[in-house]
Design goal:
353 residues, alpha/beta, TIM Barrel, 2 domains, eight-stranded parallel β-barrel, three-stranded antiparallel sheet, 16 helices, 12 strands, binds flavin mononucleotide
Amino acid sequence: MFYQKKFVGVCVIKSYQVRHIQVNPGLVLSPMSGVTTRPFRRLIKELNPGAVGLVVSEFVSVEGMTRGSQRTLEMMKFSEEERPYCVQIFGYDVDRMRDAALMVQDIGADLVDINCGCPAPKVVKRGGGCELMRQPEHLQKIISEVKRSISIPLTIKIRAGWDEGSRNALEVAKMAEGEGVEALAIHGRTRSQLYRGEADWDLVQEIAERVSIPVLGSGDVVCRKTAEARLKGKVAGLFIGRASMMNPFVFTEILNDEPSRLKGNHALMLDVLFRYCELLREDFQESSCGGKFKQLASQMCRGAPWRKQLLQLNALKDHEALLLAVREGRWRPAALETEEAETVDVSCDMFSA
Ligand SMILES: Cc1cc2nc3c(=O)[nH]c(=O)nc-3n(C[C@H](O)[C@H](O)[C@H](O)COP(=O)(O)O)c2cc1C
């Protein structure tokens, strides 16, 4: 493992290497269930040329994969331009985890990642996600079996621990390194915290000091300022999740220290949304596109006067018709929409509640 440093402005944006895979820059599109589908990942790669070092799929159930669920298998689909590409799997059963990791390898992904951080009850009740941090011996068995079976690099994503009384991220990181995991990401909150409070980046830095594999941090990176504050010491790179929905240009803006492109630029918002419609249609049936479109639009278009109306529509073709009306200057607020739309800045402190 070695680090390169890319000097941009006054800050150092690092890159890192996992075996033969260069993650350059060390800015990673964080896995988000229901969000980081192929259309979203492609959109983010297109909008940030050269600024996204790695993209990760949404988490994929090893139960669904190994039972042959077509819908689950489709979640792994990717395009060549996405490389390097990582598929994240979740589950509990050692044999299914191994078989699923082999399937990830077989489809040609560059990396496989094990989810050890998901807090969702339906996942942890079945032993997956953050529950694996409560059962480190079982996690060790999974890692050891997966490592023994695959030839592509294995990474893991963990939380600080289950709760305040069991913050075992360091122990899990050391165990994982010992078993041959080649990089790990830490979301510095416990399972009990969910998304409340602040992510503990001191912990990320401490773990980066104490193991020799690349350690990435996750949590509340939303702009250049927050990136600089977190990319300290031996931390190899940053996972960026929710901010990519609020501001899909966030990777470029962090890398190049640029101001927000979208802020007040409704024409650009429309371009992004029209492109997202095209990408969604390539992968999903028309009936599922509208919901996915709204997920991005609701986050990205805060402050736009037509946002509320857009979110009241369900079909993608209706979304497009409204966007077209806006683009052509034909859009008028509906009677119910005359009150001022909520105004939220797409800048730095969007998560500093
Ligand atoms: C809607 C949503 C879905 C998520 N799904 C996953 C997932 O599938 N796998 C995972 O490891 N983390 C998942 N996360 C956690 C994020 O990857 C990330 O660690 C967390 O949101 C903190 O980073 P952020 O502040 O940059 O969003 C999800 C987060 C959100 C908001």
